[in-house]
Amino acid sequence: MYNFMLSPAERELQKEVRQFVRDEISSDFLRKMDKDEIVYPKEFVAKLAERGLRGIRFPKEYGGRGMSWIADVAATEEIGCLGMALGCAFVMPSIVGEALNVFGTEEQKQKYLKPYIEGKLIAAEALTEPRGGSDFFGAMTKAELHGDHFILNGMKRFVVGAEGADFFLVYCKTNFDS
Length: 178
Fold this sequence. Notes:
Low-confidence stretches: none
Number of helices: 6
Radius of gyration: 17 Å
Distance between the termini: 40 Å
Shape: globular
Strand order of the largest sheet: 4-1-5
Order of helices and strands: HHHHHHEEEEE
Strand content: 5-15%
Helix content: 40-55%
Number of strands: 5
Structural class: alpha+beta
């Protein structure tokens, strides 16, 4: 990302994340990731959380920094040089956190979003289905309301971050008329 597009605070964050990548992520750690010796990068997530680098754009009351999407993208670009696996682990709070932050109740934000941003919980995203791939709008998995809870029926093929996840964001249909 071009520096002239960033505000002073966003440039500072970019420098902070670049320094984090240089100082905290060893080549030995990356080699272990490449050899699949590390199933889920919990150590990486913990280091991000210690530095306040999870949930950069989410409200401070949930552990975020309350920064912009641009700041989040600038940080993602710096993390991206570490490879896809760590890049995915880094952006997952933006994906799962967005659903919780926008659609979640205050109780759900306290139970899931805050500890997730703090690195105390791990989440996974269940989107991809056998028939349609990663087609958000074509999801065939259904959630039917039964009393005060939903019953999920369907299949997911590839669940990003499933290994060791404490909770899942599952894409499904609740309106069957459309």
